[in-house]
Amino acid sequence: MTIQHRRKIVDNITGVKNRTRAMLKANGFTRPAQQGSWWKVANRAWMRQLTRQFEITSEQLWRMSLADMLDELELLESQLKRVTKYLDDYLKNQAGAKLLMSIPGIGPRTAEAVLAYTDDINRFNRSKQYCAYFGLTPKLDESGSRRRLGHISKQGPSVVRWLVVEAAWRAIKKSKALCEFHERVMGGQKGRKKIATVAVARKLLSIMRAMQVSGELFNEGLVCRECGIERVVAVKKLA
Q1: Where are the beta strands (DSSP E) in 41-188?
Q2: Angle at 145 between CA 143 and CA 146, to 5 degrees
Q3: Radius of gyration (Cα) for the chain, nearest Å?
Q4: What is the pLDDT of residue 4?
Q5: Rounded to two decimals, what is the model's pTM?
Q6: Can you tell me whether residue 179 is helix, strand or coil?
């Protein structure tokens, strides 16, 4: 699928950048020539210059490897640009795109992944069913008379689960209501931070389902809990 293909390209770009920095540092270049990102235009030009300044000897073979990695990076970035354009064009034709992106922390890549894997929202009668489809509901562990909720099931499309959890980190910073929900789940225990973030991700999916059903935009007042079920209350219609 194109969404997974894009994620793989992004992972490959990160890998090439990490290897490039490691090689430069191993050869005495602990920081780039120009202050700021290693990957801004001036520093990329500096790296290219390093591959041309000296005659390649057995001691300088790393410069050849550096040139190869810079070539690989440019190729991957051109592929990423092409795939991103395709996905952006796809998203323009999705009715729920503007809807989902009104949620704090939800960007185009998360919205398109959720919409693509959701297909028809009417397949899901309840929020719990929707969250379970994406593997974000906890498994029930039973042993004799003991019943407790364990780790999330991690069933369904992992790329959506990954994107929504990443979006949850952003949403906590941008939405007061979601931040307060995150704090309640943490209960003052720093060790529960990841658990609370997954709970926010699950709440985001519940909100997304309700918004797709109702056609309503996100509003801070929409985030609520009632009888242990995450819901959205209608306030503002999508134009």
Answers
A1: 138-143, 146-152
A2: 60
A3: 23
A4: 85
A5: 0.71
A6: helix
